[in-house]
Amino acid sequence: MPNIPFLDLVTPHRELEAELTAVFQNTLRTAGFIGGPVIEKFEHDFAQFCDAKHCVGLASGTDAVRFALMAAGVEPGESVITVPNTFIATTEGISQAGALPEFVDVDERTYNLDPEKLREYLERHCDKDQESGRPISRRTGRIISAIVPVHLYGQMADMDPILELANSYNLVVIEDACQAHGAEYFSKKDNRWKKAGSIGKAAAFSFYPGKNLGACGEAGAVTTNDAEPAHEVRMLRDHGQSRKYYHEIEGYNGRLDALQAGILQVKLAHLETWNKQRRERADEYKRLFEASGAALPPYEPSWSRAVYHLYVVRTEDRDGMMNHLKEMGIGTGIHYPVPLHLQTAYTSLQYRLGDFPVAEKAAAEVVSLPMFPQLSAKQQAYVAEGILNFTSMAVR
């Protein structure tokens, strides 16, 4: 029986073993563990990859969300709008910046922030602060200062209408691009394709090992086209220092270490190829599923070039499908089974079941299928066969 993992992290590291080992050896021989040219080189190259002017390497994607919000001027006591179907790091970053997360439901097809629901929320559920022009949430009485659209599963949110609303209400937009390294969005407003990480005031990236660009441990980054938040994030990550032992603010220990930066530098050279292979694998899944009717492929709008960090389908009998595929030796995952507004950690926010029906329905039905650059067409055919077998049995 074939064994098809949900994610293969062994093969790419085996293929790059000599280069990655050289990074480790160089780090040992130079004792350049923190800061220095290796980190500066990666920051320069990743900024260039994202079509952004600045990149600041950090210890994690969570730090990236938190520091980006703080550097963009989000203040304690304010609220930040995001979506309920994301990993908790998005809202942890908001809370740790001193703000309160407030949720808006997602689009049924893309699972990303729905601009029309955002508009409805701002117009019908908020008042306007006369001094700042920003919305005041009737739910909490707090001023809303920012929006964090999440580019979920490797596909970007519909940014033009989100930015238009943000400009109307004097809101900062911070992209959560932690799953979207290299994803692109066609802006009708600017009549060109734009990379994730180059559109908002700033963007947060995670380099957790399973990402399209993953470290061999924890790592993250903020990208921005604005020198001021880049400078602020650099201080925040390094105890508030503008230079050694001169502390302009009280900061944090959130630095990217040189070993991880060197590993990411090696992998960055392969990222475009890996993303291309993921898109090819997604096209093959689409062909297989459209031919068999076994599953509905993910929706990719004309304005999107997704990089398929995850390949997600939906089924009403998720446990049944996953168990059937497991028996066939096929790995699967769930991202994410409980939306954030229903998590115990956020009981104090007093949201209820039914508040965000689209996110809730998706959370009960989504299944992530095997997706990685080295996935073969033969393996995908086996996955599709397994899903077709399951759906055929369910119809009987």
The number of helical segments is 12
Report the uncertain regions: none
Number of strands: 16
Structural class of the helix and strand makeup?
alpha/beta
What integer is the average pLDDT? Answer: 97
> What profile does the largest beta sheet have?
7 strands, mixed
N-to-C CA distance: 25 Å
The spatial strand order of the largest sheet comes to 1-11-10-7-6-2-3
Question: Could you name the CATH class of the largest domain?
Answer: Alpha Beta
List keywords for this structure.
12 helices, three-stranded antiparallel β-sheet, Aspartate Aminotransferase, domain 1, Aspartate Aminotransferase, domain 2, 16 strands, seven-stranded mixed β-sheet, alpha/beta, 2 domains, 396 residues, single chain
Compact summary:
With 396 residues, this protein is α/β, with parallel strands linked by helices.
Topology:
Layout: H1 10-15, H2 17-30, H3 37-49, E1 54-58, H4 61-71, E2 79-82, H5 89-96, E3 100-103, H6 115-124, E4 126-128, E5 135-137, E6 144-147, H7 159-168, E7 172-176, E8 184-187, E9 192-195, E10 202-206, E11 220-224, H8 227-237, E12 241-243, E13 246-247, H9 258-292, E14 304-305, E15 311-314, H10 318-327, H11 357-365, E16 366-369, H12 377-395
Parallel strand pairs: 2-3, 2-6, 6-7, 7-10
Antiparallel strand pairs: 1-11, 4-5, 8-9, 8-14, 10-11, 12-13, 15-16
Q: How would you describe what is shown here?
A:
The chain has a 7-stranded mixed sheet, sandwiched between helices. A 3-stranded antiparallel sheet has the order 9-8-14, with no helix packed on it. The protein has a two-stranded antiparallel ribbon with strand order 4-5. Helix 4 packs parallel to helix 5 (89-96) and helix 10 crosses helix 12. The protein has helices at residues 10-15, 17-30, 37-49, 61-71, 89-96, 115-124, 159-168, 227-237, 258-292, 318-327, 357-365, 377-395, and strands at residues 54-58, 79-82, 100-103, 126-128, 135-137, 144-147, 172-176, 184-187, 192-195, 202-206, 220-224, 241-243, 246-247, 304-305, 311-314, 366-369. The protein has 12 helices and 16 strands. The longest helix has 35 residues, at 258-292. The chain folds into 2 domains: 10-266, Aspartate Aminotransferase, domain 2; 271-395, Aspartate Aminotransferase, domain 1, CATH 3.90.1150.10. It has 396 residues and is of the alpha/beta class. The model has no long low-confidence stretch (mean pLDDT 97). A hairpin with a 4-residue loop joins strand 8 (184-187) and strand 9.
